[in-house]
Amino acid sequence: MSWSSNTGMGTTTILKQIHCTGVYQRASLRLTAFLTDGTSVVVTNSATFSSSNTAAMEIQSNTLMSKAPGQSTITATFGGQTATLTMTVTSTSALITSTQVTTVLPSNTLTGAVGRTQQMDLSFVLDDGTQFSNVASLTYLALNAIYTFSTNSTAISTSSTGLLTLNSNSNRMIRFTAATRTCGTSTSQSASYDMWANLALGYDGDVNLGNTTGVKFQNVQPGQALSVNVFIRSSANILLAFQIQINFDPSFLLAAAGSCSMQSGWSGSFTCT
Prior knowledge:
Blueprint (H helix, E strand, L loop, with lengths): L1 E5 L7 E5 L8 E8 L5 E3 L5 E4 L5 E4 L2 E4 L3 E9 L2 E14 L1 E6 L7 E4 L4 E3 L2 E5 L4 E2 L10 H4 E5 L4 E3 L4 E4 L7 E7 L9 E10 L7 E3 L20 E3 L41
Parallel strand pairs: 2-9, 11-19
Antiparallel strand pairs: 1-3, 3-4, 3-7, 5-8, 6-7, 8-9, 10-13, 12-17, 13-14, 15-18, 16-17, 18-19, 20-21
């Protein structure tokens, strides 16, 4: 029999600390049995594994869980045969060399009622070649232990763990930035994602003006018409009549009389006044 441990970079016998977090790399165990007819078969799921030093590393569901610096002999047993592999956990850090924001919003727009949240996700690569994806879903590695997060507008705010909150509309794209924390002599790596903040209908009877994705109101040149969509939420009750009053600076905009028109979504008709 032969076997290996794999961290996403290939076979390894050394597991390092992840970017000064105090959390160590993990490894997936793989056991191969060589048969008398010259063929081989992967028998990982049918084998049993044990660690001689559970203070340094233990095994759960064929995964080597590093706990503290140290060395351990990992023993695999299958069909009355055994194989061993010596593994080492070291406090030396594997440093992040590149990172990427992997969350992509529809139409690059964070939309919804005030207070809507969105968890941002990332991936990164360590200097030993190990690759991590869907980092936000890792239960053993906290995002704020690796990154600091920021946005350049109060329309969308972020928590220390990269959880976005929609607060208001914005007429400019908003940049979300994730930057790795300093670790030894490493240079901070950063990644960003640009998005629109666009409030949508919330409660019943709520009114929403403008586009539902992207920027709320398109840029127009002097003399050009600015068309504004009007949305009214009426899910629980039948809307019989409504009146919308819009205040604007007349030095910039001039309302054109009779210029409103009914679009899709209306079951009846209405009159502009």
